[in-house]
From TrEMBL:
Gene Ontology cellular component annotations, sorted alphabetically: plasma membrane
Family recorded in the similarity comment: Belongs to the ABC transporter superfamily.
Annotated CDD domains: ABC_HisP_GlnQ (cd03262)
Membrane topology, from the record: Peripheral membrane protein
Chain ranges of the ABC transporter domain: 7-239
Name of protein: Glutamine/glutamate/polar amino acids ABC transporter ATP-binding protein
Organism: Halosimplex carlsbadense 2-9-1
Length: 243
C-alpha cells in the first residue's frame, strides 16, 4: 500500500448465496483521487461500493481505510468517514432541506444545533441551494434533491465519497447541475469513487477508470489512456459499444 492510499480493496470475493458476484477484486484509491467505475449492468459495481461501508459483507479478502480493516471498527464510525450517495436520493420527506442536512450531524456527531445549521447553510451554498433551505423534498426537482443528498453526506465531513449512479434517475436536463457539484468536489480534493454511465463526465473528472465485467476488474487505467488506448479486448469492446 502506498503511503497515500485511503481506500483499499484487497482480493475481495463476494457471494449472494451460491452465486459469486465479485471475483478477487483489488483496487487501491489514493487520497484526493477520483476513481470512476464503469461497466455493464450486473457487473458488480454497486455491490463493490456497498461492501466499502459494510452494507454488504464479503466472504474473502479485506477492505481497509487508512490501512485499518473496516471490520475492525465501529460501523457507525465507518459510515461517518464514508459518505455515500445513491440513485434514489432517499431524503426524509417530512423534514425540510436544512433539517435533512443537520439531522445526522446533530444526533450522531452530537454537534450543537446552531453550529450544524450554519454548516448546513454553507453546504447548501456550495451546492447552489441556499434559497431552498426551508423547502420540503417534494417541492424540489430531482436534480435539487440529489444536490441536497450530496450536501447531507458532506455534512458528516467524510474523508471519502462514494457515488452510485447518482444521475441515473434524473431527467436529462437535470443531470448537468449534479455533475457540476461533483466536479467542484473533485476540484476541492475530495477522494471519490464514482459509478456512472456518463462517459463524458467520467473522462473529465476521473483520474483513473476501472472497467468491471462479470464481477471482475477487466481493466484499470489512467483516464486518457483508458479511453484512447485500452489494453484489454474487453475494454475495447466496451468502448466500441458505447461510441
Ligand atoms: P451493477 O451495480 O454493476 O449493475 P450489482 O452490484 O448491482 O451490479 O449486481 C452484481 C450481481 O449481483 C448481479 O448479478 C445482481 O443480480 C446480483 N445481486 C445484487 N444484489 C443482490 C442481492 N441483494 N441478492 C442477490 N443478488 C444480488
Ligand atoms: Mg448498480
Amino acid at each position: 500500500m502506498g503511503s497515500d492510499t485511503l481506500l483499499e480493496f484487497d482480493g475481495i470475493d463476494k457471494y449472494f448465496d451460491d452465486t459469486k458476484v465479485l471475483h478477487d477484486v483489488s483496487l487501491a484509491v489514493n487520497e484526493a483521487e477520483v476513481v470512476v467505475i464503469i461497466g455493464p449492468s450486473g457487473s458488480g459495481k454497486s455491490t463493490l461500493l456497498r461492501c466499502a461501508n459494510r452494507l454488504e459483507t464479503v466472504q474473502s479478502g479485506e477492505i481497509r481505510i487508512g490501512g485499518i480493516p473496516i471490520q475492525d471498527g465501529n460501523v457507525d464510525h465507518l459510515r461517518q468517514r464514508i459518505g455515500m450517495v445513491f440513485q434514489d436520493f432517499n431524503l426524509f420527506p417530512h423534514k425540510t432541506v436544512v433539517e435533512n442536512i443537520t439531522l445526522a450531524p446533530a444526533t450522531v456527531k452530537d454537534i450543537d444545533d446552531q453550529v450544524a445549521r450554519e454548516r448546513a447553510m454553507d453546504l447548501l451554498g456550495d451546492v447552489g441551494l441556499e434559497d431552498q433551505t426551508d423547502s420540503y423534498p417534494n417541492q424540489l426537482s430531482g436534480g435539487q434533491q440529489q444536490r441536497v443528498a450530496i450536501a447531507r453526506a458532506l455534512a458528516m465531513e467524510p474523508s471519502l465519497m462514494l457515488f452510485d449512479e447518482v444521475t441515473s434517475a434524473l431527467d436529462p436536463e437535470l443531470v448537468g447541475e449534479v455533475l457540476t457539484v461533483m466536479r467542484e468536489l473533485a476540484a476541492d480534493g475530495m477522494t471519490m469513487v464514482i459509478v456512472t454511465h456518463q462517459m463524458g463526465f467520467a473522462r473529465d473528472v476521473g483520474d483513473r477508470i476501472v472497467l468491471m465485467s462479470d464481477g471482475e476488474i477487466a481493466e484499470i487505467g489512467e483516464t486518457e489512456s483508458f479511453f484512447t488506448d485500452p489494453e484489454t479486448d474487453r475494454a475495447e469492446q466496451f468502448l466500441a459499444r458505447i461510441h
